[in-house]
Amino acid sequence: MTGVILRNVEKSFGAAKVIHDVSLDIPKGAFSVFVGPSGCGKSTLLRMIAGLEETTGGKIEIEGQDVTDQEPARRGVAMVFQNYALYPHLSVFENMAFSLRLARAKQSVIKQKVHAAAEILKMVDQLDKKPSQLSGGQRQRVAIGRAIVREPKVFLFDEPLSNLDAELRVQMRLELARLHREIGATMIYVTHDQVEAMTLADKIFVLKDGFVQQAGAPLHLYDDPDNQFVAGFIGSPAMNFIPARVTGRSDGLIMAQPDGAGAITLEAKSTGEGLSDGTIVTLGIRPECLRPAETGLSAKIEMSEELGGVSYLHARLAGDRPLVVERRGIREMLEGRTIHLTADPADILVFDPDGRRLR
Amino acid sequence: MIQTRKIENIILSVITLCAAAIWVFPLYWAMVTSLRRESRVVSDSAGLIPDEFNLTSYIDAILNTRLLTWYWNSIGTSLIITVVTVVTSMMCAYAISQMRFPGRRLLYLVVLASFMIPAQALVVSQFILMNDMGLINTWGAIILPQLIVPVVIIVYKQFFDAVPKELREAVLLDGGGEYTLLFKVYLPLNWGITAALSIITFIGAWNAFFWPFLVATSESTMTIPVGITQVQDTFGVQYARVMSVALLGAMPVAVAYLLFQRRVTEAVMISSGVKG
Ligand SMILES: Nc1ncnc2c1ncn2[C@@H]1O[C@H](COP(=O)(O)OP(=O)(O)OP(=O)(O)O)[C@@H](O)[C@H]1O
Ligand SMILES: [Mg+2]
């Protein structure tokens, strides 16, 4: 069953259109992540699902119910904000109890639900404190508790971890994953951090400029991106892109000469449909797919980042094009040297001049 | 370096002390005068040093003037003005700050504009209005025109504007409406400023002289500042009695001020635009 469905959803602020014809299916019970660069419309989309922004066009359904024009509180959604948005004058308990009190729940019910939520979040001994007496991580936990107490159909998170320091962020990420396992509710999570997206998501939606670029499981997006944007956005360090000229095709492979690399030819797995010799394409190669070879792209290594088990070589190709190479188990000093690199045809993705993937 | 600092401090302290002395002297003089027998107040023997402790003029003020009625009128009108002004201004400011409706900007401009019109400019028309409404010599006439205090709306609006919009959205998601927002979140978050605005509104209403003087012509509806003008008899001004009435009249405000000193300073600073 589908948790949330968006059909041809659009949003304009005055004359500026920020969401263009977005249609997506968010599976029930799954952890879905909207990811994309700053300003791409992730928050706007999330707020439209919450009902905090009106939709300019299209339809939103939550568990089979059309909620497009419904009040936020009636949609069965709860939201966790980046800046926590706790009620500063109320205790932790009262923050969590707020919605229940508004719904005129019995005191015993309120107590039981708040305690259950506090139990999940390990906040039982903090219930009497005011938000100002809590650390950032604890505050965010209260905000999550406030959501849990409402037992919503959908949890919405808008960059909930971005105000926390790096260590806490990792810890809270694990806790969110645990929380999702424990309560199994539909969760939609917005972030611009692709690592967060990769680690948390069952399904990722990559957004750019108000369009959904691609949706799918994290590894699917990593292995099989639909376009150059997704290929470059997912993965860290990012995929290398090298412009190249098509020189020939033969059963499922295309030959291409990278820009300024002389007579070197790379083979990439692609039917090359619609490509004629001489067309300029972009080759995409992940850093871990590049390996040394007798002949191949020659790259001058400018700097290497040694992280122990893995090193990243930052190199330059002919024409000053940057290239990142991942190496494992090698610790020799390579800075200043020139090496030759190649990759398997299956590991080289081909993109047309518009950035579309040519499979 | 430290030496000059010290000297600077001493000089500053002396100047402040002098200013305080100048300010406090009338008060002191009123007190000394009110404790003298009427016959001695203007005589040669009345010096700067208090030399008598005579409560006659106080007793006189309470028994022979309508001080208690004036007290009651002052307390009643000031309290009503304070409560109504603060509550309505708060709601108005909330609407202007948080709700989206056609004419919102215009409404705020009207508030700002009315802030710039001096009260004196309205006196004649307001008096005629009160007269037409048959309210002269009633609390109504004293209260109604004093209910419009644009600065309270403006200050509230600024504070409401500063509440993060996510709080509002959290309440909407939690199932609250505008009343919940205003009374359960925006007001509790702004208790400090509410207290401060209430106090300055109260002090303003208590001290108001000009307007109540115009519309309260019978002794039974006068407030204390107006009543003081009545404390004289056919033989002329009785200084001791006037001073004792004035001191008694100022006392509630002084007590309120002492109790809420910090809040009052805060309020004066905010409403004069130093802060906020
Ligand atoms: N209330 C608004 N009025 C006008 N434009 C807005 C409004 N809210 C958002 N926008 C615009 O819509 C676009 C998308 O904004 P949104 O906040 O959804 O981005 P985002 O993907 O969440 O970015 P970030 O990662 O920085 O939070 C931006 O260009 C922004 O300027
Ligand atoms: Mg955002």
TrEMBL record, chain A:
Keywords tagged on the record: ATP-binding, Cell inner membrane, Cell membrane, Membrane, Nucleotide-binding, Transport
Xref: Pfam families: ABC_tran (PF00005), OB_MalK (PF17912)
Keyword Transport set for record: yes
SMART domains the UniProt entry points to: AAA
GO molecular function: ATP binding
InterPro entries linked: AAA+_ATPase, ABC_transporter-like_ATP-bd, ABC_transporter-like_CS, ABC_transpr_MalK-like, ABC_transpr_MalK/UgpC-like, Mo/tungstate-bd_C_term_dom, NA-bd_OB-fold, OB_MalK-like
Superkingdom: Bacteria
Tagged with keyword Cell inner membrane: yes
ABC transporter domain: residues covered: 4-234
Family designation: Belongs to the ABC transporter superfamily.
The protein, known as: ABC transporter ATP-binding protein
Organism of provenance: Roseinatronobacter alkalisoli
From TrEMBL, chain B:
Signal peptide: none
Transmembrane regions listed in the UniProt entry: 12-31, 70-94, 106-129, 135-156, 191-214, 239-260
Keyword Membrane carried by entry: yes
Cellular compartment(s): Cell membrane
Membrane topology designation: Multi-pass membrane protein
Positions of the ABC transmembrane type-1 domain: 71-260
Protein keywords: Cell membrane, Membrane, Transmembrane, Transmembrane helix, Transport
Pfam family, one: BPD_transp_1
Superkingdom of the organism of origin: Bacteria
Stored CDD domains: TM_PBP2
Listed PROSITE patterns: ABC_TM1 (PS50928)
Main location: membrane
Assigned protein family: Belongs to the binding-protein-dependent transport system permease family.
Protein name per Swiss-Prot or TrEMBL: Carbohydrate ABC transporter permease
